[in-house]
């Protein structure tokens, strides 16, 4: 093939046209490849987030069982009922990783004790705590709450080789009636807790490391687990849990593929195809330029070649659109498949509680109620995941929006759905902004919901919504509250999916609301953050473009009295 002759025969115009064709083809291929690479990254991130969430949920369920058991034992210790049968009935299935449970009085005299791991240590008459446990007992007594002690090695494991000694920690709950009466102490092997929690939840394909943060903020690794022969990948997902006064972090690395091989190879194959196609088109242009003076039959054949190449380009573009549609529908399909069985579990639990509840004892009814609560909580999480994922591909429809009217509507909807003591909500004179009204309503709804929910027990929420200018062409809308506040080191992290500050422990929520707010605000080109509120509480804010025109007149909204 004589390329020089092709260029000479095509002339300057033909060579320039071929160069432009090649540049456009490679540019289009590069854009398509970048899109596929982004889709691959999004799919990988989504899959890793899902695996991390399963690990977090498995540990959260175990921690909740520990908290429920400690609460039950503490309550039983304040009665005259014998404790030994209740303690002896505990098993390692309910408390994975538990080595020994001890209930003592305020003087350290042991009232009941039981080993859950099958060991038979000699019974003890008094606690005789070492220094670390003694400090934990004192913190639990003075604080009146469940406390986890620092990592240490169990006395029962000291005879093992150093490589086989896993970290352990003590979980302590105070026993209080009218006065302080003693403690409930559970010694826990952290590696066994992690392993059995993940196995019990059916978690596979991950290598997991569990760390616990001390009071000074230093993280200590307490356990790690992976399936035999597993090789961890390079990507890592993290999640954080709050339990027993400590912050627990899990680092999750996949040990199996996160996405299928077809999506993994899509980007390089697209670039290869674009390169080949671009070179083919450029060659066709050169050939056409060189053959302009040849016979009409040759010209028609060249035209047919170009049409065929264009058809191949159109087919490649259609395949790319189908790939993008498949990726966008993945999250919705997964959510729908999860919703149906979860709704069935919740429905059957409610039906069983309604039909057989009067014949069940309190413990059995409690189990059914917990099943219903946990299932409804999981449904809420699935709904949040679907909403969060769909927001990534949402195309905002910006228009002039009366922010005052929109906010009053959001407030009215929230107040209509509340029971009991209502929050006090003040809505200032908000400006017209340029935004998608539905998406902006989602952001305001989540921020107002959080402000109304995260308040100290026994107090009514006080919320104000105001706005101020934020540079030329922008407004900053603020939702201020007098709630529990956000610790300084968590003010950036709470906008990540599934992250919840330790101060939010005990409050309902999925950890996706603020992440969804950030995604919507980013789609509008704005920013979102939180500042401390002078005098207590938080000020959540976001920036939104100002509207140069007045909103279209709509139906007048009469806001209800927020008092």
UniProtKB/TrEMBL annotation:
Q: Name one GO cellular component term.
A: plasma membrane
Q: Show the catalytic activity.
A: ATP + protein L-histidine = ADP + protein N-phospho-L-histidine
Q: Which Pfam families match?
A: HATPase_c (PF02518), HisKA (PF00512)
- Compartments (UniProt record): Cell membrane
Broadest EC class assigned to this enzyme: transferase
Q: Report the InterPro entries cross-referenced here.
A: BphY/WalK/GraS-like, HATPase_C_sf, HATPase_dom, His_kinase_dom, HisK_dim/P_dom, HisK_dim/P_sf, Sig_transdc_His_kin-like_C
The record's Gene Ontology biological-process terms are: osmosensory signaling via phosphorelay pathway
**Quick check: keyword Kinase in the entry?**
yes
Q: Could you tell me the superkingdom of the organism this chain comes from? A: Bacteria
Q: What is this protein called?
A: Sensor-like histidine kinase SenX3
């Amino acid at each position: 093939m004589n390329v020089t002759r092709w260029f000479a025969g095509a002339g300057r115009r033909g060579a320039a046209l071929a160069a432009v064709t090649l540049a456009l083809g490679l540019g289009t291929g590069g854009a398509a490849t970048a899109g596929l690479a982004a889709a691959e990254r999004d799919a990988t991130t989504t899959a890793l987030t899902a695996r991390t969430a399963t690990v977090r949920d498995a540990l959260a369920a175990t921690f909740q069982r520990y908290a429920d058991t400690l609460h039950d034992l503490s309550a039983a210790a304040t009665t005259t009922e014998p404790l030994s049968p209740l303690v002896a009935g505990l098993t390692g299935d309910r408390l994975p990783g538990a080595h020994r449970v001890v209930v003592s009085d305020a003087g350290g005299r042991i009232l009941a004790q039981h080993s859950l791991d099958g060991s038979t240590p000699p019974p003890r008459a008094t606690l005789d705590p070492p220094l670390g446990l003694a400090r934990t007992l004192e913190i639990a007594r003075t604080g009146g709450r469940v406390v986890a002690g620092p990592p240490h090695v169990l006395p029962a494991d000291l005879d093992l080789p150093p490589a086989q000694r896993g970290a352990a920690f003590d979980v302590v709950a105070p026993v209080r009636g009218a006065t302080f009466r003693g403690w409930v102490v559970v010694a826990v092997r952290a590696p066994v807790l992690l392993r059995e929690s993940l196995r019990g939840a059916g978690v596979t394909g991950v290598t997991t490391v569990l760390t616990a943060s001390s009071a000074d903020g230093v993280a200590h690794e307490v356990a790690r687990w992976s399936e035999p022969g597993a090789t961890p990948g390079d990507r890592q997902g993290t999640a954080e849990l709050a339990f027993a006064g400590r912050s627990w972090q899990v680092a999750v690395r996949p040990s199996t593929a996160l996405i299928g091989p077809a999506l993994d190879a899509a980007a390089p194959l697209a670039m290869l195809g674009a390169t080949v196609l671009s070179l083919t088109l450029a060659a066709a242009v050169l050939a056409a330029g060189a053959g302009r003076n040849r016979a009409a039959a040759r010209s028609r054949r060249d035209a047919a070649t170009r049409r065929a190449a264009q058809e191949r380009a159109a087919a490649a573009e259609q395949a790319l659109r189908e790939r993008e549609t498949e990726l966008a529908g993945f999250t919705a399909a997964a959510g729908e498949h999860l919703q149906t069985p979860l709704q069935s579990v919740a429905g059957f639990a409610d039906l069983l509680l309604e039909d057989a509840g009067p014949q069940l004892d309190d413990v059995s009814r409690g189990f059914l109620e917990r099943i219903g609560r946990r299932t409804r909580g999981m449904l809420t999480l699935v709904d949040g995941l679907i909403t969060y994922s769909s927001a990534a591909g949402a195309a905002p429809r910006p228009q002039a929006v009366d922010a005052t009217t929109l906010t009053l509507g959001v407030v009215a909807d929230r107040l209509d759905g509340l029971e009991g003591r209502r929050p006090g909500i003040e809505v200032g004179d908000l400006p017209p902004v340029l935004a998608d009204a539905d998406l902006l309503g989602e952001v305001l709804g989540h921020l107002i919901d959080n402000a109304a929910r995260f308040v100290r027990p026994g107090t009514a929420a006080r919320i104000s919504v105001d706005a101020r200018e934020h540079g030329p062409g922008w407004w900053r809308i603020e939702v201020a509250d007098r709630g529990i506040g956000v610790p300084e080191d968590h003010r950036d992290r709470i906008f990540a999916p599934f992250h919840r500050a330790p101060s939010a422990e005990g409050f309902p929520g999925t950890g996706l609301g603020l992440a969804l707010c950030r995604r919507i605000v980013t789609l509008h080109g704005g920013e979102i953050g939180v500042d401390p509120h002078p005098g207590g509480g938080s000020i959540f804010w976001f920036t939104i473009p100002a509207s140069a025109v007045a909103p279209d007149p709509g139906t007048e909204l009469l806001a209800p009295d927020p008092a």
